[in-house]
Automatic annotation (TrEMBL):
Keywords: ATP-binding, Kinase, Magnesium, Nucleotide-binding, Purine salvage, Transferase. Residues 27-340 form the Carbohydrate kinase PfkB domain. GO terms for molecular function: adenosine kinase activity; ATP binding. It catalyses: adenosine + ATP = AMP + ADP + H(+). This is Adenosine kinase. It comes from Ambispora leptoticha. It holds the Pfam family PfkB. It comes from the Eukaryota. GO terms for cellular component: cytosol; nucleus. Belongs to the carbohydrate kinase PfkB family. PROSITE patterns: PFKB_KINASES_2. The lineage of its organism: Eukaryota, Fungi, Fungi incertae sedis, Mucoromycota, Glomeromycotina. Its EC number is 2.7.1.20. SUPFAM superfamilies: Ribokinase-like (SSF53613). It is an enzyme of class 2 (transferase).
Length: 346
């Protein structure tokens, strides 16, 4: 007799943010010292940006945060009750909006809620199909290890796969390590994302603390290059950087590491710990069909995980990743079609 499927096998942890998304030109980027394709944490000089885009532009509000985008993407292609998401929000209107939006997408959210600060937000500035993200973490950075070990630990024990955004390194490295060590001890799959160049540049020590636990590590070519520079590697070829990441020291030797590095419209590089490197082309898309690349990377990982947690091969998982990312960039924001479109492997 077949064993019943266990609920909520994919555990995702990150920074839940309400995205405030606007279309603008380079003038706005220059005013706040922003780059067209970048992700940064808000500094004091960026604080007026949020009020300005709400007042002077036509904002679109999306339940976001990189890890939550990925969780929603994975759940989009998974059976009901497959994905659970953990993070911290404020006890406010935006927090309620986030919860409603996530649950509408079928995601089970187990937020830690705090009263003292507001729910986190992210300014998303779109210029000519490029996006600049400025995150004001606020409540998101208040997540505590105690919440994980007491209230949420039953969900950790229940899960077989774990995904944590690299952005969470700025919030609670102890929480990441707690999950990572559990995964290694129980031979479960632990997955992370390099997430942004600034993490490799300024949070190198934190990255190096968690890297030995990576079973799967995702990133794009810019993030991989920043990781190589932060570690003073001599080689600059992205394939070799991917391989070097795959071959970093590893705690759980029962699972060889896989590094997946995307390159926009160029083929995705998959490097294995044994030295194998493979390339997978993306799905071609006409320039006129591109609406917004914001969230495409998150959708890619979500699509990949949706198959990988079901025991599918890397090749099948990459196919789903490309498929979901292709759908995502035809929509506004890190969103997915309201009516589910089934993924059919070719």
């Amino acid at each position: 007799m077949a064993t019943a499927r266990k609920e909520y096998e994919l555990f995702v942890m990150g920074n839940p943010l309400l995205d405030i998304q606007v279309n603008a030109d380079k003038t706005l980027l220059e005013k706040y010292g922003l780059k067209a394709n970048d992700s940064i944490l808000a500094e004091e000089k960026h604080k007026p940006l949020y009020e300005e885009i709400v007042k002077n532009y036509e904002p679109v509000y999306v339940a976001g945060g990189a890890a939550q985008n990925t969780a929603r993407g994975a759940q989009y292609l998974l059976p009901p009750k497959s994905t659970i998401y953990v993070g911290c929000i404020g006890n406010d209107h935006f927090g309620k909006q986030l919860r409603r939006a996530a649950e509408k997408d079928g995601l089970r959210v187990e937020y830690m809620v705090v009263d003292e600060v507001a729910t986190g937000t992210c300014a998303v500035i779109i210029t000519d199909h490029h996006r600049s993200l400025v995150a004001n973490l606020s409540a998101a950075e208040k997540y505590q290890l105690d919440d994980l070990k007491s209230v949420k630990w039953k969900h950790v024990e229940n899960a077989e796969f774990f995904y944590i955004s690299g952005f969470f390194l700025t919030v609670s490295v102890p929480s990441i390590l707690e999950v990572a060590k559990h995964a290694a001890e129980k031979n479960k799959v632990f997955v992370m994302n390099l997430s942004a160049p600034f993490l490799a540049q300024f949070f190198t020590k934190a990255l190096d603390e968690v890297s030995p636990y990576w079973d799967l590590i995702f990133g794009n070519e810019t993030e991989a290059d920043a990781f190589a520079k932060a570690h003073e590697w001599a080689h600059t070829d992205i394939k070799q950087i991917a391989l070097s990441i795959a071959q970093l020291p590893k705690v759980n030797t029962k699972r060889p590491r896989i590094a997946v590095i995307t390159q926009g419209s160029q083929p995705t590089i998959v490097a294995y710990q044994d030295g194998t490197i493979k390339e997978y082309p993306v799905i071609a898309i006409a320039e006129d069909d591109i609406v917004d690349t914001n969230g495409a990377g998150d959708a890619f990982v979500g699509g990949f995980l949706s198959q990988y947690v079901q025991g599918k091969s890397v090749e099948e998982s990459i196919a789903a990743a490309n498929w979901l990312a292709n759908i995502n960039i035809k929509l506004v924001g890190p969103t997915y079609p309201a009516e589910k479109i089934p993924f059919v492997p070719k």
